[in-house]
Design brief:
This protein is α+β, with helices and mostly antiparallel strands and 277 residues long. Helix 5 crosses helix 8 and helix 7 packs across helix 8. The longest helix is centred in the last third of the chain and has 20 residues. The protein is 26% helix and 22% strand. Strand 9 and strand 10 form a beta hairpin. It is elongated, with a radius of gyration of 21 Å. The strands form three sheets. The chain has a four-stranded antiparallel beta sheet with strand order 1-6-7-5, with helices on one face. The structure holds a DNA duplex (16 and 16 nucleotides).
Length: 277
Amino acid sequence: MRRGLAPVLVGRRITRVVTGPPSYFFLTPPEQLAPRLEGRCVEALERHGKYLLAELSDGARLLLHLGMTGQLFVEAGPERGGRARRRLRAEPPPSARERHHHLTLGLRGGLTLVFRDVRKFGKVRWLAPGQSDPRLDKLGPDALDVSAALLQAAGRRRKCAIKSLLLDQSVLAGVGNIYADEALYLAAVRPMRSAQSLRGRELEALSQAVRSVLLRAIELGGSSISDYVHPDGGRGSYQLERHVYGRAGQPCQRCGGPVERAVVGQRSTHWCPRCQR
DNA sequence: CAAATCCCCTGCAGGC
DNA sequence: TGCCTGCAGGGGATTT
């Protein structure tokens, strides 16, 4: 998402901000966003774990999280004057197409960034210059920087399932449910194994698997299983080559045995009982 | 401290 | 066809 968005956003000025109705999607009250964003330039777009951070020309930052159903995409417009401009003004009954559009940023040069989120588990917050956010402060190292040593240190005294450790954003920031299952499959480790039970070579394999699953998913543009879309509205294709996630009952691609599904740490979990120990 | 539970919200698939 | 239930890629607060 960051890679797709950066070329569009960075260097662009925000000319207009339209917000949807108040909801807990807005960590910063919606009516405060326009005065704080309009006229500012986006100077950089960073990511840490699942958070995106847009750095603004006045030193403030905009923090974004997509939650489960969040979509961030770019559209043409607003045009100068006329119809499109009117359409961007707040209209109480949003058209079906614009439902769940919580934040719309009109950019100089004729593009619009839309943050849409059906379930409102996503978040947006404006951060004053130098201000941080407890959510960010709690994050562990980014998942692309995973290492066996990190997993070992984090799991040493924990009895929780290794999958729960992977999903714990304060340990490692960025692994979600799909990629946790996929990484454990590639590393041949059962998701419900206690974190402290993993041997050195298993931790090494898992660490490599986390990195390669994420890098591959980035290459393929993510997993568009139901909602996820690119900044250009296109869908990712990692879901086409997932090994276990969402494949319960189907044959394991390595051994042919059926993929199992169970709940681990309150999350839907998929694994091959023959290949994963 | 770690782990479990509940909750936020909407849409959709599947069962009846 | 229509109603009902369960489930979904996240994560925070609260309880145990």
